[in-house]
Amino acid sequence: MEVTAEDLGKRSFCEAVMRARLPKAVFKELKKTIDYGAPLDAAIADSVAIAMREWAKELGATHYTHWFHPLTNLTAEKHDSFMDPVGDGTFITEFTGKELIKAEPDGSSFPSGGIRETCAARGYTVWDCTSPAFVKEIPDGCKVLCIPTIFISYTGESLDHKTPLLRSMDAVNKQALRILKLFGKTPAKVTASVGPEQEYFLIDKDKFNQRLDLKLTGRTLFGAPAPKGQELDDQYFGVIKDKVSHFMRELNKDLWEYGIPAKTQHNEVAPSQHEIAPIYGTTNVATDQNQLLMETLKKVAERNGFACLLHEKPFAGVNGSGKHNNWSISTSDGENLIDPGKEPEKNLQFQVFLAAILESVDNHAALLRLSASSAGNDHRLGANEAPPAIISAYLGDQLADVVDQIIANGEATSSLKGKVYKSGCSVIPEFKMDATDRNRTSPFAFTGNKFEFRMVGSTQCIAQPMMTLNTIVADTLCNFADVLEKADDFEAAAKKLVADKLREHQRIIFNGNGYSEEWVKEAERRGLPNIKCMVDAVDYLATPENIEMFEKHGVMSKRELVARGVVMYDNYAKQINIEAKTMIEMSTKQIIPAVMKYEGTLAASVKDLKELGISADTQMEILSTIDTKLAELKKATAELEDIVAKAAEKEDDPKAWAKYYHDVVFAFFDTVRKPADELEKIVDAKAWPFPTYEELLFEQ
Ligand code: ADP
Ligand code: MG
């Protein structure tokens, strides 16, 4: 399989393709919308549609679809062929501007959180020209033109992740421009960007297929730890196995063809865990690309004899997977507003943006935590794995020092510089080190010219965290601009504002080890929220203050916010319900019968030994231990069944329902898992009904 220059972006209706294929005037119009957010002139749609259709047909596409992000964390598509009957039994291929711009799928079965009743089915998908259309190609399958769209209800509310994200990008653009204007700068646009690093596991497909839990829930619900885990750190950045390397090559080819700039790949900490990171893009395009990347990961894995696990915690006892969202805002003139430059102590504009971001993170820590919450991510956040559920921001030595000076003196006069490194080896060149180390334990870490929001879950659609970050920062910039626009002496006012805000929000800065017990105590002392689970986090979505903020910036209405809370509760309850039912099924139909069968073999051997006059004490002891644990497992499974059955009583109240699933159902899982895992450790490996951790993690 060769990757040639022509492959790059070949399936993306990207700017270069548009420039080559669209009439000049149309291309110019479209560019104005894409680059500067100018309202799209619907009159150009016909022309774009024809070019898009011809381009897609040349790639073999027979169908097109509006492609959107319902509130499932997945994408949705409903294919329509380009064929239109002429009336004489023949067809022509048609695709008009009207079809490009808008479709009206039924789509009534998507989660709406009560915005739509099941009987009210009408919804609209509307073209987002700022994210390139692409042709999805399934080997030997349909080739489909996918047109990124928003998805809204007949009543006008968003039913997807993209709509609020686009609105939040408008908000941050508007407010950042106000601030920049005060600094005498008037770029056409400010854009929020993100580079999402994506972690995943690759395991053998046949073994995956033998695990009901992996197939139905994405994670293992049973499994004793393997004798080896990740303690030797021998997987992290380790040599990539040939089979995995082959997979990565095919993956990259597919991604590059889609125009997804896949850049970095490596082995991650846990056995069989890997990571891929693309070059960053606008929060909108990067979100679309991340969704397509997750889908492509799964498909290419299949083709290579793997199953790709995107779940946040597929295996107990080894690291789970996250998605580090590297976020920044930059102007259409190419200035990154989060770049401190060489002299951060003198860079007042940077200090204003930094203070605004820190204030946003401190004031809206709960919202940020919520934006990264899911049933799967609960295993990472607030559990014994990183990053902790407490939001704090890491600045590094250089900025922390600048901030300290400002807090103490109202301004900073110096900043730490990177040292020149001398290795002591004559053959190794000297180089200038960074002024600041990195921090791997902070949920919101400054990394040179961007912030890395490291809490996000690996399965998640990144639109929600990015929409949240964009909005809270827009809100603070708005408050800043309100003050500064009125100031007589702008520079003095800006300096004072920065100092005041840094003093007020210094509690959110933490440069130490975010995984330590001491930090949990220290954070509590500082009054930082530590929201342990998703169900508790949902409370913060539609508080009166948050409703006011989201409405003020036109990002989400009260009705939309409340609905999203309901979707989250509902989704949580349903996921835990599936996990509970899968546990019951595996215990009842797989583990218990297998152990009983093994007991029978043991019992027969005891009988045989006794007939020969041998005491069989050891066998009896093993048999008795197994029987005790089997009884424990049987009892726990029956109890879990009762507990799950009672959940129905709460179904009418989404919050109580989700809370019951968290506090009662989920909390009981360990009671079922424990005897099963103990049995796994003493039962003959050949008798165990499904692949073990050893086989899943070390036989890739
Ligand atoms: P790490 O060393 O943190 O694992 P990676 O190289 O894996 O870093 O990923 C870093 C990510 O940050 C990439 O997706 C990269 O494109 C993105 N990135 C780099 N600069 C910026 C920026 N200014 N704004 C947003 N994202 C950025
Ligand atoms: Mg990385």
UniProtKB/TrEMBL annotation:
Name of the protein: Glutamine synthetase III
Family to which the UniProt record says this protein belongs: Belongs to the glutamine synthetase family.
Gene Ontology biological process terms in this record: glutamine biosynthetic process
Keywords linked to the UniProt accession: Coiled coil
Superkingdom of the source species: Bacteria
Ranges for domain GS catalytic: 161-591
UniProt domain GS beta-grasp: residue ranges: 62-156
SMART domains: Gln-synt_C
One Pfam family named in its UniProt record: Gln-synt_C-ter
The species this protein was found in: Wujia chipingensis
SUPFAM superfamilies per UniProt: Glutamine synthetase/guanido kinase
InterPro entries, alphabetized: Gln-synt_C, Gln_synt_N, Gln_synth/guanido_kin_cat_dom, Gln_synth_cat_dom, Gln_synth_gly_rich_site, GS_Type-3, GSIII_N
Alphabetized GO MF terms: glutamine synthetase activity
Coiled coil (residue ranges): 626-653
